[in-house]
Amino acid sequence: MSPQANTALETFANPAPERDYTVRMIIPEFTCLCPRTGQPDFATLELEYVADRLCVELKSLKLYIWSFRDRGAFHEAVTNEIVALLVHTLAPRFLRLTARFNVRGGIATTVVAEHRDPAWVAPAPVTLP
């Protein structure tokens, strides 16, 4: 199976929509191409979200992420593009994507993009003794 830019994200019903819980995923093998040089850029993506009605299906997410490996994209653009599609598809209560790009030319880049549903209020953190 080869990657395709039009890979659709699949979803499934949130099994506990009455509860705020965080889904965290680490995607250590993200690649895209530098739009200036065509050389590969490598990153680790850290995805966190609080689902509302839908969760993302992992295989479809893997194929979508794989679709970037032959595309030229600036770090900022690709991070925000992924967030935009996830928000459009899932309509989560909260979503954060941290993209940690490996060093290129002596510079390591980290891009963090977030979405917060305006009606959602994050629960207060719990501090345990």
List key phrases describing it.
GTP Cyclohydrolase I, domain 2; 6 strands; two-stranded antiparallel sheet; 129 residues; alpha+beta
In short:
The chain has 129 residues and is α+β, with helices and mostly antiparallel strands. 19% of the residues lie in helices and 39% in strands. It has a single domain, classed as GTP Cyclohydrolase I, domain 2 (2-Layer Sandwich), CATH 3.30.1130.
How many strands appear in the DSSP assignment? 6
The rounded Rg comes to: 16 Å
**Structural class designation:** alpha+beta
Overall 3D geometry? Answer: globular
User: Which fold name fills CATH's third level, the topology?
Assistant: GTP Cyclohydrolase I, domain 2
Roughly what fraction of the amino acids lie in strands? 35-45%
**Mean of the pLDDT scores?**
94
Characterise this structure.
The protein has about 130 residues and is α+β, with helices and mostly antiparallel strands. It has one domain: GTP cyclohydrolase I, C-terminal domain/NADPH-dependent 7-cyano-7-deazaguanine reductase, N-terminal domain (GTP Cyclohydrolase I, domain 2, 2-Layer Sandwich), CATH 3.30.1130.10. It is built from two helices and six strands; from the N terminus they run E-E-E-E-H-H-E-E. The protein has helices at about 60-65, 75-90, and strands spanning about 10-15, 20-35, 40-50, 55, 95-105, 105-115. The strands form two sheets. The protein has a four-stranded antiparallel β-sheet with strand order 2-3-5-6, covered by helices on one side. Strands 1-4 form a two-stranded antiparallel sheet. A hairpin with a 6-residue loop joins strand 2 and strand 3 (about 40-50). The longest helix has 16 residues, at about 75-90. The chain is globular.
